[in-house]
C-alpha cells in the first residue's frame, strides 16, 4: 500500500471520530498520534501498511464506542450537540412548540395589561397608568411560560413538573395575598425586583430537566443564562429599530395609531422574545458559542481596568459622603454584572487548558470588586447603625454579604488555580454550588422580608 | 487468565496513576506499559485510555502538556500531581483492603480443597 492510501485512510478515520462532535480537534490529534505510533510499530514488526492500519484501528476501538466514551467525559460537548444533531422533522416540531409558547407569553402579558389598566394609579407603564400588581407580578406572566416550555421540551417527569407548578403557584399566591401598603412601597418594590429572579431559578430547574444537584447541568444553566442574555439583547435591539421605524413611518398619516401600536406590540414582543431567545440558544448554539468567549474576553479586561480605577478612586475619596440609595443600586448592579461576567467566563473557559493570563485578569477584577464591596458594606453598616434597618437596607446588606462571600471564595480558588494547586473544576463547583445560596436569598426577600417589615 | 471487564474498569485509575508515578508519559507508552505489566491478562481497548486521562486531568490528578518528542512527534504528555499521588495512595489502601478480605477467604478455601 502506498503512503498516500495510508494517509487517506487515516484522514477518513479522523473525520469519522470527529463527526459526533464529542471528540474535538486536539483529542483527535492525540488519538491520531497514537494510531500512527501503533502503525509504525506494527510495520516494523513486518506487517504491511494496510494490515497495520486495520489492526491499529481495531485496537483503538470502534469509532462509536470511542466517541460515546469521550461524550461521557466531555458532557459539555455533548450538550452542544444535542440540538444540532436532530433530524429535520423534529426540528420543525420544536419550532412549532416554541412559537406556541411564545404566543402564549405574548397573549398572557396583554390580558394582564388590559386587566391592570386603571385610570388612577401612581405607577405607569408606557404612559398608561396600571395597577401596582401588574409591575409586581410581571415575571409571573412570562417566566412560568418559559419554564413550561422547557418542561415540555425536556419531557420532564410528572412529579418534577408538579413540584415546579407548586413552587410557582406558592410564589404567585403569596405575593398577591400580601397586604402591601398602597402606593408601591419599598417591600413591594423589592418583590417586583426579586420575583423574576426567583422565577428564573424555576426556569433553571426546568432547564436542567429536574437534575438540580448535578454540577455539570447547573453549569449548563449558567451558560444558557449568559447566552440567553446575548440573544435577548440582540432581539431587543432589532425590535427597537423595528418599532422606531414604524413610529416614524406612521406618524405623518396616523399619529393616533402610533401609541396603540407601541402599547400592543412592545409588551407582547418583549414577552415572546423571552421564549424565542431561549429557543435560539438551544437551536443555534454554535453561533453564540463562538461569540460568547470573544465577548467575555473583550469585556473582562475592560471591566477589570474600570473596577480597578473605581476601587482606587473610592478608597482614596471614601464612600461615606456621596453615598445614597441610587449609588448603592449602581454599585450592586456593577458587582452583579462583574460576577456574571466572571462566572460566565469560567463557564466558557476551555477545560482542557490550564490557568492563563485571562485568569489573572479575572483575579484583578474580583479583587477590585471585593474592595468595592467591603467599602459598600462598611458604609451600609454605618447607616444601619445610625438609622436602623429598613426592608431596602436588609435586602442590600444581604446581597452584598452574599456577593462578598462568593467573591472571596472565587478569588481564593483562582489563586489556588494559578499556582497549580487546584483544578479549574473546583472553581466551577464553587459557582454552581453557590446558585443555591442565591436562590435561597431571593426566595427569602420575596417571601420573608415583606412580612417582617409590615409590607411597608 | 482474562481479567473481567468490570474489574479492568475498577483497576484503570490506580493503574494509570501508578504508571505515571514512574515518570511523565504519554498515551501510547502508558498502554505499552500496561501490556507489559499484565502480560496479556488485561485486555483494554486502547482508545478508552484517553477519556480516562482527560477525566484525571479534569479532577487535577494529572497535568497534561503537548510536547515534541526527540523524533519530532507531537505528543500530549501526562504528569502526576500531588492530588494524583494522594488519590493513588487512597486507592492503594482500598485495593489492599479488598485483597486482604478476599485473601483471607481464599486461603481457607485452598486448605479445604
Count of discrete alpha- or pi-helical segments spanning 4 or more residues of chain A: 18
Major sheet of chain B: 3 strands, antiparallel
How do the strands of the widest beta sheet of chain B line up side by side? 1-3-2
Overall strand count of chain A:
2
Task: Output mean pLDDT of chain A.
Answer: 83
What is the count of DSSP helices of chain B, taking H or I runs of 4+ residues?
A: 4
Beta-strand portion of chain B reads 5-15%
State the separation between the terminal residues of chain A, measured CA to CA: 85 Å
Q: Mean pLDDT across all residues of chain B, rounded?
A: 86
Helix content of chain A: over 70%
Q: Gap between N and C termini of chain B, in Å? A: 20 Å
Strand content of chain A: under 5%
What's the main sheet of chain A like? 2 strands, antiparallel
Oligomer: heterodimer
Low-confidence stretches of chain A: 80-89
Largest interface: A-B, 29 and 27 residues
Overall geometry of chain B comes to globular
Secondary-structure element series of chain A: HHHHHHEEHHHHHHHHHHHH
Q: Determine the structural class of chain B based on helices, strands and strand pairing.
A: alpha+beta
How many β-strands of chain B, per DSSP? 3
